[in-house]
């Protein structure tokens, strides 16, 4: 150990090297002090060092203090309490929060989870499987609108099924069709359900059968267009009503992009006053480049996990040595390796301590106005369509026109758009420019195209094998059955390829570095819809390019039929019996069986026991894929509408049951996904017109008049802004509602200056300085009156000291992990369950509970007031090394009862914001005068605040 000790001493820098660093360096040499080594080196107290230089992220705890902190935090306990894990699983399932009895004690572990504060089954009821739209809005309007979209899909497919059922029956049993399309026994049964039993029938296709098909298709198309217009109108109206009913911080905020670095806040205010007369600005929150900080946060988390693994390995080696006498020989001793890890953690925290200067400004800021009407007024000049943008590009770049107007400041072009919710923002990605994003999108689309080529090669190979087997003469019944099995398996392969595309596209979309979680989900769902439709509906046409084989056993119609069966029935089956969910349940049983030998912390065990999250992007994509497939092949294969209608009903029932019974309490998503896919409904009509023209021309090449008219009608509907005309004709009186920020801010669960990592961290530092000042005051008072001890006063003083120490530790963890959610959002992980939680949420009832927030993976973040549903308003985070789609980890921050770990009260987490000076008051607000801890200690605690005795009881 002498050599190891000398090496350890060489690691510790000298005082000259540390003069610009935090004074506490005892984390590096903590193992030596516990073992009695290196006693010549004195460790300075973290509290004393902070008193002279303020709080620094480089401060670290000694091993004894760290162990004490772990003991104070039940989430770090090893082995975990699996009964608590089961209660945590029960609390995180979907429940109707409105059924909670408000008289129940929130800190009672019999009714509420101890870590997340969510209700157990004995305190809140489950949602009914027949819940209404209004009750489902409690989960987030995204879910309510999704089930409405699903209902619209079922109605549309049912309309198609009625006409297609007539065509199917008429095709098989009709007199005219029997004369013109005589059955062929060599063809499979699927050909009887298609348009022509022989495929391309030539002149025999000119009879009354084709006229009836055209009539039925025209009626179906007209009804579906009418249903789509009515549904889009009512959904738009409902979204507007919700936006006016539930006021959020985004109702008052706009995001300004491309801000010049020399443009100060006063210049921004002056520029907005030129855009509108009612341009009173409450505050401006600037954004900075925080990617380096996020990377450092991730490094610290990885190092901490490695340090914990080494400690466990060292413990096991010590136990083995005591039992068997076996000595573990390592190239680097445990002590030295742990010390090196602590040194890296210290240096990384020191680098994070550097303040962000103006050079790190990312040219974006969030501007909050005094009323909601101003947001729409300043956003109107910047809403340009594609033609206006193209003309502006020509004027500025080609003709070099003068840059002037409302959208310019000092010959510098700015852009303004309505901001998304504070929890919806990916702060780390705001620094990525438009050119870099466009390049990344080009790369992701190229990779997706390569994946589709590989998929085409796989399916083409399987189809070639089936063609070879089917081309053999005198095949037996068993061989024919085997060929049919292969045809069905090929459709299963297509479904598995679609699942693989979903995983790939999700990771590629995270590479695009979107500004918000909503844009990320939209990007995933749209790309996934396009990719799966090409793989399922377009590529089979190229595999069966010869039209005379379309209606044979291994032809196009056979492939599409089995693909629709796979989408409509196999998809819901795989969703219900999810392989990765089963694997996770097996892991839960395995860890629970270990018992005392389990090495997971309580936090990691909770993450393992949590229910799976809901993937709304995937659900929307599956719905639109089915609609596009029906629009593509309903003319040539009418039975697909019947299959899709039945499959949509099955999907609706399975998804509704699993969301309300199996999945995790979902994040509060807005209706953007459902609104976007409703806007894609005209593409379905366009696909229908194009496919009808193509298949009609192939089957009946001499008569194209009807198909041409259909195509023209579909193209006109696609390009004419029908929905805009309807919206202008149906104006809503509630759209002119005016809301004031100062009146609504007390109902907000968060705000932009609170969610901004840079400003948030500065506020936490100021609050901690105040808490440390109180702690020093109590310690000085204890030292001065150590001779004359009063039992009651001493107990009160020690209680307050411990409470302040716990609060300071919580604040330190919050500051050390201010950038963790951003660090994990675009490192190749899957943040599809990251989403805004406060959007369309019910406003607070002017009451702030004292239950502080605590995130179990792997840090504690800011303490915020809770919404009425008792759901934490913290941004969801993801554990770096376990962020797998198959085994998703925690997506919600947790609410720890005050009896478990004391932190700041929610109303004290952020002091009132001084919007004029953009500085927060360093002293946390409180109702009434601040307590005089010194006087309370001297008088034996007689000057207690009102209500404190009741809290102690």
TrEMBL record:
One function term, GO molecular function aspect: calcium-activated cation channel activity
Residue spans of biased composition, Low complexity class: 42-61
Keyword Coiled coil applies: yes
PANTHER family: PROBABLE MEMBRANE PROTEIN DUF221-RELATED, RRM DOMAIN-CONTAINING PROTEIN
Bias-annotated ranges (Polar residues): 849-908
One GO location term (cellular component): plasma membrane
Coiled coil: 761-814
Domain CSC1/OSCA1-like cytosolic: 251-429
Keywords: Coiled coil, Membrane, Transmembrane, Transmembrane helix
Species assigned in the record: Euplotes crassus
Region (Disordered): 1-73, 849-953
Membrane-crossing segments per the record: 151-172, 213-231, 442-466, 481-501, 522-542, 562-583, 625-653, 673-695, 707-726
Protein known as: CSC1/OSCA1-like cytosolic domain-containing protein
InterPro entries in UniProt: Csc1-like, CSC1/OSCA1-like_cyt
Superkingdom of this protein's organism: Eukaryota
Biased composition, class Basic and acidic residues, residue ranges: 16-40, 943-953
